[in-house]
Amino acid sequence: MSDAIGVAILGLGNVGSEVARIIESSASDLAARIGAPLEIRGIGVRRVADDRGIPVELLTDDIDALVAREDVDIVVELMGPVEPARRGILGALNAGKSVVTANKALLAQSAGELAEAAEKARVDLYFEAAVAGAIPVIRPLTQSLAGDSVIRVSGIVNGTTNYILSAMDNTGAGYDTALAEAGELGYAEADPTADVEGYDAAAKAAILASIAFHTRVSADDVYREGITKISADDFDSARALQCTIKLLSICERLTDNEGHQRVSARVYPALVPLTHPLASVSGAFNAVFVEAEAAGELMFYGQGAGGAPTASAVLGDLVMAARNRVQGGRGPRASRYAKLPIAPIGLIPTRYYVRMRVADKPGVLATVAAEFSKREVSIATVRQEGEVDETGARLVVVTHKATDAALSETVAALADLDVVLGVASVIRLEGTQE
Ligand code: NAP
């Protein structure tokens, strides 16, 4: 058994307290797996007090001093927000400590800066818990699939929105009712903006795209739409089409006619056929569906948040970093060699569902269809749903693949037609072969 590995934990909240607990309760097993015991040297918090279930002498509010301590080998950052986490992590890396973090917001913004600091110091920087909590997805992408070529990663990586959308699907509730229920049950925060507007999912898409396609992708490169406009009527139409609606984080490698490759990273609510594996991921669960050239389809499923599940992923990284310290090396890291350009959303081909109210008159279908065909948007199906009344008829068009630019032009033209009383909803359709 080697000398003890000194660990500093930054943050003692939902995740940090579970990590500290498991380090203590599983001490002998962890020591046997690592080849050296782990010893917590200090825990960074805002409130240093003796009522926190941790010996008060371990607590400190001086993050800079804690990460620089000579007896600290590995820093586990679990504070959240970008600052002071960024400063703490850079301080640790520059002082030659390996770092484990779950901070998706920071990684989506500053992964390059952190990776360079880790590279310079020749230490590990691990972040399995930053995407999809307990679900192993970073390590499979960086290591297990290191010899394959990933084509596409589609994830349900935000539990709050998946809970809301599942509730809308199961109960027929509207968005506001489902959001209120999610808040009461603790699945949505008092300010749910980061979740329902897709910012959290976009940060995770940036991390997944960077790793899957060996390219630096930041949160600003990710096209983003949230779920706030999804209605009970959309779910009625989705059911009629044998689909459900999910907030997807999609990372894709696209090849144009000249063979040039680009990366697309995007987050939006999409219709997903009930036969697709992602359709059955309900409630607060997460899943990541990977398509690779040789491996084919892979699905990773489990708990995407919560103190204990997230701590499991953090502990996995901590054990890896500690083993590397004991053996005197570094683990494999994500590469950025491909440097692919980012594809703008206008170029992305997807299928669409367009729901509109139209006048109940002869010739309406032909007029509507003409607007699609003028822009080479090919229609797959047209359905009239529900009863016709004084407000017209509800028409649902599903297209074959078209670019976002062509579809946006079509929708603008439809809205100008006298026979179209209003375009109520435009949602992409993902997970079909056509
Ligand atoms: P949390 O419950 O809010 O805990 C944050 C902790 O950080 C608290 O102990 C707080 O100290 C400490 N802290 C915050 N700002 C600080 C500062 N300026 N100086 C010193 N300490 C500071 O957060 P969490 O839910 O455990 O999440 C931690 C990280 O894990 C975040 O990056 C989050 O995105 C990520 N994550 C969380 C989950 C999850 O399910 N919770 C899942 C995946 C990833 P006090 O206790 O003194 O206030």
TrEMBL record:
Metabolic or biological pathway, per its Swiss-Prot or TrEMBL entry: Amino-acid biosynthesis; L-threonine biosynthesis; L-threonine from L-aspartate: step 3/5; Amino-acid biosynthesis; L-methionine biosynthesis via de novo pathway; L-homoserine from L-aspartate: step 3/3
Class of the enzyme per the UniProt entry, highest EC level: oxidoreductase
Cofactor list: a metal cation
CDD domains: ACT_HSDH-Hom
EC number in record: 1.1.1.3
Binding, L-homoserine: 189
Catalytic activity, reaction form: L-homoserine + NADP(+) = L-aspartate 4-semialdehyde + NADPH + H(+); L-homoserine + NAD(+) = L-aspartate 4-semialdehyde + NADH + H(+)
Every ACT domain range: 353-428
InterPro entries documented for this protein: ACT-like_dom_sf, ACT_dom, Asp/hSer_DH_NAD-bd, HDH, HDH_cat, HDH_CS, NAD(P)-bd_dom_sf
Gene3D superfamilies in the cross-refs: 3.30.70.260, Dihydrodipicolinate Reductase, domain 2, NAD(P)-binding Rossmann-like Domain
Pfam family, one: NAD_binding_3
Record: active site: 204 (proton donor)
Keywords (A to Z) from UniProt: Amino-acid biosynthesis, Methionine biosynthesis, NADP, Oxidoreductase, Sodium, Threonine biosynthesis
Similarity section: Belongs to the homoserine dehydrogenase family.
Function statement: Catalyzes the conversion of L-aspartate-beta-semialdehyde (L-Asa) to L-homoserine (L-Hse), the third step in the biosynthesis of threonine and methionine from aspartate.
PANTHER family membership: HOMOSERINE DEHYDROGENASE
Name of the protein in its database record: Homoserine dehydrogenase
